[in-house]
Amino acid sequence: MFERYEAGEAAVLVHIDFSDEDSREDITELRLLVESAGAETVGVITGSRRSPDRKYFVGTGKAEELAAMVAATDANVVIFNHALSPAQERNLELICQCRVLDRTTLILDIFAQRARTYEGKLQVELAQLRHMSTRLIRGWTHLERQKGGIGLRGPGETQLETDRRLLRGRIKTINKRLEKVDKQREQSRRARQRSELATVSLVGYTNAGKSTLFNALTVSEVYAADQLFATLDPTLRKLDLQDGSVILADTVGFIRHLPHDLVAAFKATLQETREADLLLHVVDSADENMGDNFEQVQLVLKEIGAEEIPQLIVCNKIDLLEDVGPKIDYDGDGVPIRVWVSAQQSLGLDLLEKAINQLVGRAILELTLRIPATAGHYLGQFYRLDVIQQKEYDDLGNCILSVRLLEADWHRLAKQSQGELETFIVETAAIE
């Protein structure tokens, strides 16, 4: 049996260009990911194909070239800038005689290194277990069959089946613990809503400067470094503005083709983004891939259900650009849409706070709604926001509901209902 090597420091990278735009990756980004994981690049294999090879992903000739480079450089890990199937990983390990990782496994490994909190560690373990569940057969081929003979007869379950059962049990346990953490986060969110503090969430491509900006705005000491996924666990701080205060949340950075296992595992953490009143979309204005990275973040926001939340674009790192100073760009209605800043040099932070102050209005609505019995599902949304002041029913079974909530929350609910909620309004009692 082929014994798998432990992951090491010397890595050979493999990057293939495909004609399909959706399958393309960035070789520079792969180098940064490998560096963030703590490995040293000792060789790079590149090529182009129309579609992946079923056996080796790269084709037989390229696989032999890869094996030769591994032997010549004494590399002990091969890292692909693409997603590999379990069969492809195993076939490549057999020909290269070393550990083979794909892009997803590499990102999961970086997340495992960065996790600091109890919740973060649980989320990373859950993502790793889900990813591992499709790859168990690769490491246990010598135990796939039951053995016969005296002393070797077991309970009728192969080692692979045992591992899968244990894996399912562990995933179930982690999900229960994460549900408990999610309930605790929900209580914290409700407390913030009752205090009528808006939540502003920092989002953006990884290494765009979100944590540096967070530290500059809140005078905090959140870990910030020039590496991918320096921030994993969300951090919340109070930010005082001219007309009040908001809660500023620093979240994990996004990346193109973010593994679905990670999106599912980080459901509780990403909830801070989904429930925010405003998203500060931080972009690296000095990055030549700024436009593409912007679109990738928009795709992830859509995947987690946060595409409807208002955004303010924060063009960071203007100190690396020529003839660009701090400024605010407005739309035709005089609403801020873009702010140019340098978090590292503390340039334009006052303009950013001014723009946030303009966008996060604290207007309070007091509404009376007549909700028919057929639309009772809306009651749950008002209960979750904890905004119900009074509730009674008329003779026809309609729910007469008095609510007091933030104008931003009402507009979000109305939009989600495609305007149906607005047809239930009996009166608007007050606007503060």
UniProtKB/TrEMBL annotation:
Q: Which GO terms describe its molecular function?
A: GTP binding; GTPase activity; guanosine tetraphosphate binding; metal ion binding; ribosome binding
Broad class of where this protein is predominantly found: cytoplasm
Cellular component GO terms held in the UniProt record:
cytoplasm
Ranges for the Hflx-type G domain? 198-364
Question: Where does the UniProt annotation locate this protein?
Answer: Cytoplasm
Q: Where does Mg(2+) bind?
A: S211, T231
What are the alphabetically sorted keywords of the record? Cytoplasm, GTP-binding, Magnesium, Metal-binding, Nucleotide-binding
Judging by the UniProt lineage, the source's domain of life is Bacteria
Q: Which residues participate in GTP binding?
A: 204-211, 229-233, 250-253, 316-319, 342-344
- Chain coiled-coil ranges: none
Q: Which cofactor does it need?
A: Mg(2+)
Record family assignment: Belongs to the TRAFAC class OBG-HflX-like GTPase superfamily. HflX GTPase family.
Name the PANTHER family for this protein. GTP-BINDING PROTEIN 6-RELATED (PTHR10229:SF0), GTP-BINDING PROTEIN HFLX (PTHR10229)
Q: What does this protein do?
A: GTPase that associates with the 50S ribosomal subunit and may have a role during protein synthesis or ribosome biogenesis.
What subunit structure does UniProt give?
Monomer. Associates with the 50S ribosomal subunit.
Q: What is this protein called?
A: GTPase HflX
Q: Which organism is it from?
A: Shewanella loihica (strain ATCC BAA-1088 / PV-4)
